What we know:
Layout: E1 4-8, H1 14-24, E2 28-33, H2 36-45, E3 49-53, H3 59-73, E4 78-81, H4 96-121, E5 127-134, H5 145-165, E6 170-177, E7 180-181, H6 184-189, E8 198-199, H7 201-212, E9 222-225
Helix pairs in contact: 1-7, 3-4, 4-5
Amino acid sequence: MNKVCVVMGVGPGNGEAFVRRFSDEGFQVAMVARSQDFLKKLEESVAGAHAFPCDMMESEQITTVFAAIESQLGPVSVVLYNAGGGVFKNVEEASLEDFESNWRINVQGLVAATKAALPQLRQHDTASIIITSASAATRGRANTAPFASAKAAQRSLAQSLARQLGPEKIHVATVVIDGVVDLPRTRQMLSDKPDDFFVKPSAVADAVWTLCQQDPSGWTFELDIRPFGETW
């Protein structure tokens, strides 16, 4: 049986790093995102990477794409839920639509992905669902009302999934990224910051790979990742 990993939310940064790391480990990697052009470029440059365009805001598309992945690559054993949008406003500035869109990408999308993936994950002796989270999941700052509330809901959902699926040897974990991810746009915005200020996507990918290798007797549920200089 092929080793198949699904990365949901693939863009420059963590998503691309996940694709490259799991490809290096011999996985067929299904790349799920809206940006078809970016996926096609990665597909051409990464062995075993396959583009599956999908809007994670649309649950029916998620169901359809998981069926296509199983048909083309085989049943998935790893789901990396890296999709997540953020609206950074306080409760007075944010619209109800801002709150809803944050919930749909961070919570509804994860629910739809889990429902679609479970029949495939259960075909393996062990499997993993790893969710990219943020420090906003545990603390709501004044100007993060839509994002923080959605990430907190996602964290509680992940806890529920971990408790339900753990006995089936399906490892559910969240990775809290507390820092600024090293991207061209963040480098440009924070051009005065040194290299060690930024979170390196390759380091995040290494940590996620390690989570997927843990023995069920010593699983991690929540892993914090931050540069040494980050205030926390």
